[in-house]
Specification:
This protein has helices at 3-11, 64-75, 86-89, 106-122, 137-144, 175-181, 204-209, 216-222, 224-235, 267-276, 299-318; strands spanning 44-49, 92-97, 126-131, 150-155, 185-195, 212-215, 239-245, 281-288. An 8-stranded parallel sheet has the order 2-1-3-8-7-4-5-6, with helices on both faces. By secondary structure, the chain is α/β, with parallel strands linked by helices. The structure holds manganese (II) ion (MN).
Length: 327
């Protein structure tokens, strides 16, 4: 054990025996965190939102949280790149899944999500989420909202800023537009990256509102380092939320999703961009759209769990232990 690991092992604030057990054994929680459904005595909550009533194409993301929990046991508790563990300085818990009063009514179910996140926000608990389809991000942002608008770093193949269509303005093609119109997100402090595909004509709102849209072609032309520095200068020092739709990755890396679009970034490129964002004031994040029915080998859920862990680490690093706590 090197010095850094030994220091961590002696000082961790959150520890469960499960963390040391084989990843296939026991009852899986996110990264082996303790399961604690009551929102108290914790700094960071890991949350599942098993919900996919907002999809425009293939359903299945409601099964995402359970499979991400399963694969997350392979991801572990330590970040080799940033040489830290978010369990070291914080009381972390898997709080389970958002409880729904109804799973048959999109509008009503999104209110259940909002109220659950409001509870965490009121308790000063930072939330990191596994979805679920992307419709969940709007109620999450509503539940977490304070007076200050947040910036948004949005990894996706789609901008998700559509006007209502097919009878709903709350489905998973609309959350980022809704968040801006509701005054929750500052479009000038928003970057959408990995964007591509046939639905481009639906996303005029992104340009009209002043969001920075980085199509996948520009992503490769600029290179990861320039993309990272542009995100950082756009977002600045203010609070920022990270929303990662797994369909940002190429289907070769993430086939298990409802609306795959070929020609996306690799898992490694996405990880490197996230790692480059350290130092930002990350107030929460989600990893959405993992759909296990189209993921026979589990690689999409594993990629999702790994990216969720990176967002979790970024958010933990943004906080100052022993001061005012998360948020
Ligand atoms: Mn999306």
């Amino acid at each position: 054990m090197d010095d850094n690991l030994e220091k961590l092992a002696k000082s961790v604030k959150t520890f469960t025996p499960q963390m040391l057990e084989p990843p296939y054994s026991g009852i899986p929680t996110f990264f082996g965190a303790p399961h604690q459904p009551e929102i108290k005595d914790m700094d960071i909550a890991l949350v599942g939102v098993p919900f996919d009533l907002g999809v425009t194409n293939r359903s299945g993301a409601r099964l995402g949280p359970r499979e991400i929990r399963n694969q997350s046991r392979l991801v572990g508790v330590y970040n080799h790149y940033s040489r830290m563990s978010p369990f070291a300085d914080y009381r972390v818990a898997d709080v389970g899944d958002v409880p729904f009063h109804t799973t048959y009514n999109l509008d009503e179910a999104l209110k259940d999500i909002e109220s659950f996140y409001r509870k965490m926000s009121s308790a000063n608990v930072l939330a990191i989420t596994a979805g679920g389809d992307h419709s969940i991000t709007f109620p999450i942002l509503k539940g977490l909202s304070s007076k200050e608008k947040v910036g948004l770093i949005h990894f996706d193949s789609h901008c998700d800023t559509s006007a209502p269509f097919h009878g709903s303005g709350l489905q998973h093609g609309c959350p980022m537009r809704n968040a801006v119109e509701a005054g929750l997100v500052d479009p000038k402090r928003t970057v959408q990256l990995g964007i591509r595909g046939a639905a481009e004509l639906l996303w005029q709102f992104s340009y009209d509102s002043g969001m920075r849209v980085i199509h996948i072609e520009e992503f490769y032309e600029l290179g990861m380092k320039k993309v990272v520095s542009e995100i950082k200068s756009r977002v600045g020092d203010g609070p920022v939320y990270i929303s990662f739709d797994i369909d940002c990755l190429d289907p070769a890396f993430a086939p298990g999703t409802g609306t795959p679009v070929v020609g996306g970034m690799s898992s490694f490129e996405a990880l490197q961009v996230l790692r480059g964002l350290s130092g930002l004031n990350v107030i929460g994040g989600d990893l959405v759209e993992v759909a296990p029915p189209y993921d026979p080998s589990g690689i999409t859920a594993l990629a999702g769990a790994t990216l969720m862990f990176e967002i979790f680490c970024l958010a933990a690093s943004s906080q100052a232990p022993g001061t005012s706590g998360p948020n």
